[in-house]
Design goal:
Length: 402
């Protein structure tokens, strides 16, 4: 069965997470992806997956996820012959994805202005940390810096009197990668209508502003940002999280709190609260929120999380368990929807991975294979470009391939 991007050729010149993750999804969707790496390889290959443990996996699991299904070509772009190979490869591609800073793209002759003259149908996906203009256009922008810290997200998280909380790796990168995939798909659609490619620009900072958009838009309209609120003082105690007796947490998400108030009081076996004058409606509960949250804290520690879950399900309430990673991997809902996939690795055997978060009924995606070894497909790709073995030997001797 065909995949959505069958026949689409993609060239990736990128390191670390967001742009490579984009190309992993494109590969899952059927694209033929060639990853250009420096001779020493993408530094993401050396990412320590399990800090503090002496025994590490043979290949970084996050790198495996974000580079699966690709072919690897090594080029030393400081050499003119290597830059010529890169341009020749991109000339035959539909999509070029890069997160190289603008000054290096200019130095290597790989800017959009330079490439579109050679290939006007090219979709050029350009990921930056902070945007292509301004004084920081060449500033390196990792997920933690450009997405979490600079954007205001980190400053809005956590308790008001606590230090900013650390984030999990790659969350901003993977959010951004989904946006780049969507942008590429739209650019390909426009090309079908017009016959012309275009540059697509996405930045970690801009994506983060959209993610934090509710707070930023409130600040734009009100003239000041919304205040950070402690869980002990949220305005709607039915939109809050509580610790159960087994030290697991329960997240309540009842934004229309009056609609669920009666059923909630019955489910927690506190009918006395329903008509308590302090809590009869959402306005009253907002005024007396700290009192109600203190009561609910005592209620929730009386029973384990799963029992609360059964009670809330029976009552038709909106809630979720705050799960551990281990719980997520065995979650029956995750498995039923095939949110985890498998592929065969020649060294590791069957490997489970997170599936691409897009499902098609007629043209399904699938993981095409493992992440490549450094330069695993260099000769194969060069032969496809029309080089012969004598050319390849000369290129190796010149240092163009590393």
């Amino acid at each position: 069965m065909a995949s959505p991007l069958d026949g689409i050729k993609v060239v990736e010149l990128a390191t670390w997470v967001a742009a490579p993750s984009t190309c992993a999804m494109l590969a899952d969707l059927g694209a033929n992806v060639v990853k250009i790496e420096a001779p020493e390889g993408d530094p993401y290959r050396g990412y320590v997956a399990l800090p503090g443990e002496e025994q590490q996996p043979p290949l970084s699991p996050p790198f495996q996820m974000d580079n699966r299904g690709k072919r690897s070509l090594t080029l030393n772009l400081s050499r003119p012959q290597a830059r010529q190979i890169a341009r020749r490869l991109i000339d035959g591609a539909d999509v070029f994805v890069t997160n190289m800073v603008p000054e290096r793209l200019q130095r290597y002759g790989l800017t959009y202005a330079q490439l579109c003259r050679r290939s006007p149908r090219l979709i050029y996906a350009n990921l930056t940390g902070y945007g292509t203009k301004g004084p920081e256009r060449n500033r390196l922008g990792f997920d933690y810096a450009a997405f979490w810290a600079r954007s205001g997200i980190m400053g809005m998280l956590g308790e008001p009197d606590a230090t900013p909380p650390p984030q999990r790796p790659g969350m901003g990168d993977h959010t951004t990668s989904m946006l780049i995939v969507a942008a590429i798909a739209l650019a390909l659609y426009v090309r079908e209508r017009t016959g012309r490619g275009q540059e697509v620009q996405v930045s970690l900072l801009n994506t983060a502003l959209w993610v934090l958009g509710m707070d930023l838009q409130t600040a734009l309209v009100a003239g000041h940002p919304p205040a950070k609120t402690s869980r002990r003082a949220v305005a709607n105690p039915l939109w809050n999280f509580y610790r159960a007796s087994d030290d697991h947490w329960v997240m309540l998400v009842m934004l229309q709190a009056d609609r669920y108030w009666s059923s909630f009081c019955q489910a927690i076996e506190r009918p006395d609260l329903e008509n308590d004058s302090r809590f009869v409606d959402i306005k009253s509960r907002g005024k007396n929120n700290t009192d109600l949250i203190a009561i609910l804290d005592e209620v929730f520690v009386a029973r384990p999380r799963d029992e609360w879950g059964r009670r809330f399900n029976d009552a038709g309430l909106i809630w979720a368990p705050v799960q551990t990673v281990e719980e997520v991997l065995s979650d029956p809902q995750v498995r039923a929807n095939k949110y985890l996939a498998r592929f065969d690795d020649p060294t590791l055997g069957p490997v489970r991975t997170v599936a691409t978060p897009i499902k098609f009924s007629e043209t399904p995606s699938s993981v095409r294979g493992p992440a490549p070894e450094i330069g695993q497909h260099t000769e194969e790709v060069l032969l496809e470009l029309g080089y012969d073995w004598e050319d390849i030997i000369r290129l190796r001797e010149s240092g163009a391939l590393g």
